[in-house]
Amino acid sequence: MRRFIVLDSFRGICALCVVFHHFNVRGSITEWGLFRNATFMVEFFFVLSGFVLTHAYSKRDFDWAAMKKFAITRTFRLFPLHIIMLIVFIFLELAKLIAQSKGIDFNKPAFSGVNAPIQILPNILLLQSWLTSAATLSFNYPSWSISVEYYLYAIFAIVLLFSQKAKSSLVIIFLIISSVGFLGLLVPAITILKTEALSGLACFFGGAITYIIYNNSQPGKLPRLFFSMLEVASILICYYAVTLSYEYKEIFTSVLFCVTIYIFSFEIGVLSSLLKRSVFEFFGKISFSIYMTHAAVVFVAISLAMGAEKLVGYSITYSVTTKTGSTLRYIDLGNVLYNNLFALSLIAIVIAVSYISYNIIETRSISAGKKYTKNKMINTQ
To answer: Nearest Cα to 41, choosing from 352, 287, 359, 308?
Structure first.
């Protein structure tokens, strides 16, 4: 089965953008408009997941046995690293509690607000983005999108299971689900679902539709120059769509991401050739680990900076309240060069930690899932 190398590379680039978004260093590259608006990269993840999973499963027979295998492999793919990082964040809250007793003040007290103990169970079950009673951005806050995605997998599998005898209806079902998500984003009052879940429904199944369009509309032998122009134009439009402020931004960028993924799925243009380079492929490979581990690295870096203030005798960190009322902790080493070097150093640490996580946790859990499903199949024969 074909692997979309370029789209995998995009996954890695988007994950790195999210890291820069969550790390605030005064006057550094972390303050670039693209990174300040990198929350929209999550919509790209949703669209891409819908596209890739439809490519992988829409042409297969999908009976109950296939559904069980799908559920097991997806669970082994997401849950081990998620649970480990949740445990890490619980320990970080304990460390914060100890630091508070030493006179180090944080934006929020340990085990309070969104990180209250009552939020642990919804996080364990990846329900924080679905339950209205749960805090979406709790503990390892990037996992909110994994919460959305895990149950999107379930919806996707159910649709495949019950449309086996009428696969031509898939595009209609996907269109209905995606439209419901977009309509909910447009008129939030008509739904009880959280915005995050609506965004996931709209984008994931929008990505599924994008794949069906891709699969049924091969462009033939168009010149590489034409695709190169399309690729450059789509990236420029995406940049401005993400960084500018306007009404219905989430809806517009989500549709634009569908178009962009369609263009790059052919992997013909000059940018596609660049994204096939091994360095981008590497980032794509460890993208899930980058996404899931970086918040802990950022937390530790900021905590160490706050602790260092006690030693050096002057402020290294300061708090900024955003327009939405949230509080961000900034780092300032007093020099633009130092600040940029510090930001890049942190990114290097995130990449190193993610590489270790990928090899120790991700690859082993994926292998365990495959082994488990294989043994189940043997035992049921």
So the answer is: 287
Quote the distance between the C-alpha of residue 254 and its chain's center.
14
Asked if residue 286 lies in contact with residue 331, where contact means CB atoms within 8 angstroms, the answer is no
The alpha helices in 58-194, defined as continuous H runs, are 64-101, 120-124, 143-162, 170-186
Spatial separation of the C-alpha atoms in residues 102 and 39, rounded to whole Å: 34
Report, as ranges of residue numbers, the positions in the chain whose pLDDT lies below 50.
Answer: 381
* Burial (CB count within 10 angstroms: exposed 0-12, middle 13-18, buried 19+), residue 111: middle
The token pair that represents 81 in the structure block: 């690293």
Burial class from Cβ neighbours inside 10 Å (0-12, 13-18, 19+) for residue 83 reads middle
Q: Closest Cα to residue 143, out of 154, 158, 130? A: 130
What is the Cα–Cα distance from 254 to 37, expressed in whole angstroms?
14
* pTM higher than 0.90: yes
Cα(198)–Cα(150) distance, integer angstroms: 14
Taking only the tens place, the pLDDT of each residue in 180-199 is 999 999 988 788 899 999 99
Residues 324, 199: Cα–Cα separation, whole Å: 19
Residue 74: count of CB within 10 angstroms of its CB: 18
